Amino acid sequence: MPQSQVPLLRDDEMAVLGSGNANGGCSLLHAAGTGYGASIGLDLPLAVRLLDKPSKRPVDDPDELLPAVIDAWLAGGFQLPNELSKEGLHWAVKSQIPPRQGLKSSAATAIGALRALAESTKSEVSDEEFVAMAAQAQLEANVSLTGSIDDAWACLTPGWKLIDPQATSITEGVLFEGNGPKSEDWVVMVVCRGERSKRPELEDFIPHVASYQNSLSALQEMNELVALTWNGRGTVAVMNDVQGKKITNDAILNGARAAGMTGSGNAIIVVAPKVSQPTCDRLLKLFDRNPDVVKVIETSFLSIEEEEM
Fold first, then answer.
1. 52, 63, 129, 262: most buried by Cβ count inside 10 Å?
2. pLDDT digits (tens, 9 = 90+) for 177-204
3. Looking at the domain that runs over 186-308, which CATH code has it been given?
């Protein structure tokens, strides 16, 4: 499915070695909840360029994810372009994904950077290899509890996959998959708040496993919207996020078909039917009145449409 185009950064005096695109996403099942994870892409595009000189615009990479991407690329048996060293490679990133909000910005950056490396070296890379290297880079950079394999799939391909991150291979880790809700039917509102103040530990999820089990059951029935809501209910409890719980509950009471926190927060995903403009308007007014809400991004799922199958 076509995504919105992000203008790539321009810098005429340096060579662009390669470029790569990816997209953000949201959680359907947090992998720390049951040991299984699932995410779906959102039309929040990201573009990465690999350069031979530093860009005039410094890259915001506080976790040093991009150096970890190069390490994962080399560990995967691939070469760097033009016989350059790791220190001789530089990056430019243009993104519409709010960072550190649970919207898969790290997975998207890793996928976009790996695609840029692949283009720069004219390497044939399978989807499974992209996902494996993205997961390795995120673990090395300490931006993921589980490797976020489900997130990497969502940033790379449309639809969603239920992932067992403990499987012996990326291919065997895909337990089953779904097309996702039809993008023409649903408006996805990304309710952004301040960046999360903490990251949860794995043991924080244990008391709330029932919510994640309900999410897993919904995915097994191909009901992604119910899964999104149950997953979000579990995560606001894990994060002890009173305001997040209130936003979620108020959205449902005001006509949303699904609402839930994504990732480990702080963004809340709210899904409303496109055919009901009054519902959409009512929800937007609700968020506009909430001082905890920084902004709302209206977008859509990146689902596998029937004509693509």
1. 262
2. 999 999 999 999 999 998 877 888 889 9
3. 3.30.70.890
